[in-house]
């Protein structure tokens, strides 16, 4: 029956396979395997970096919950929030605030989810490198897909979102 049409409307998300298969997730605490250690060495467009600070940077989540889902990461490979220096804590907080301002300016969300998952048991996908989630939320942004199909439809390409946010960063901050 391959190729025979049926009643299902399929939403193909092959890019999710990298996440599901564990691609680019560090196997241990080795800095060489960490995607958050690798990204700052890439050009901003390629690494999806939206903004850079002295101690931390802002990058789009490769597997976003919503369009504009950002991660604020210290450059230093550290797993636990309590191990950050005072300067790193201050810059992660400052970049988080700036990320919210930029997202409000660009896409007018109704609210945000902010958070850090500390350790695999708490849901950290990359537990070896601390990162703060900044997830824009809109009324009604949840639909049947996450509940029924464990799938999230994101209607904007990451490269387009990165460009919009990076362009707006200076104006909104």
Automatic annotation (TrEMBL):
It comes from Aquipuribacter hungaricus. PROSITE patterns: HIT_2. Keywords: Nucleotide-binding. The keyword Nucleotide-binding applies. A motif (Histidine triad motif) lies at residues 129-133. SUPFAM superfamilies: HIT-like (SSF54197). Residues 35-144 form the HIT domain. CDD domains: FHIT. The keyword Glycoprotein does not apply. This is HIT family protein. InterPro entries: AP-4-A_phosphorylase (IPR052908), FHIT (IPR039383), HIT-like (IPR011146), HIT-like_sf (IPR036265).
């Amino acid at each position: 029956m391959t190729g025979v049409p049926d009643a299902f409307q399929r939403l193909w998300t092959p890019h999710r396979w990298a996440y599901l298969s564990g691609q680019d997730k560090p196997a241990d605490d080795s800095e060489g395997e960490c995607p958050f250690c690798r990204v700052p060495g890439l050009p901003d467009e390629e690494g999806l970096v939206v903004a850079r600070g002295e101690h931390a940077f802002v990058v789009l989540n490769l597997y976003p919950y919503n369009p504009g889902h950002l991660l604020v990461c210290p450059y230093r490979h550290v797993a636990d929030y309590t191990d950050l220096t005072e300067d790193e804590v201050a810059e992660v907080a400052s970049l988080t605030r700036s990320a919210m301002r930029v997202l409000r300016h660009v896409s007018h969300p109704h609210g945000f989810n902010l958070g850090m998952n500390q350790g695999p048991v708490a849901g950290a996908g990359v537990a070896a490198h601390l990162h703060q989630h900044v997830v824009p939320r809109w009324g009604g942004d949840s639909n049947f897909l996450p509940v029924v199909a464990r799938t999230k439809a994101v209607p904007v390409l990451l490269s387009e979102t990165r460009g919009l946010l990076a362009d707006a960063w200076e104006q909104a901050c």
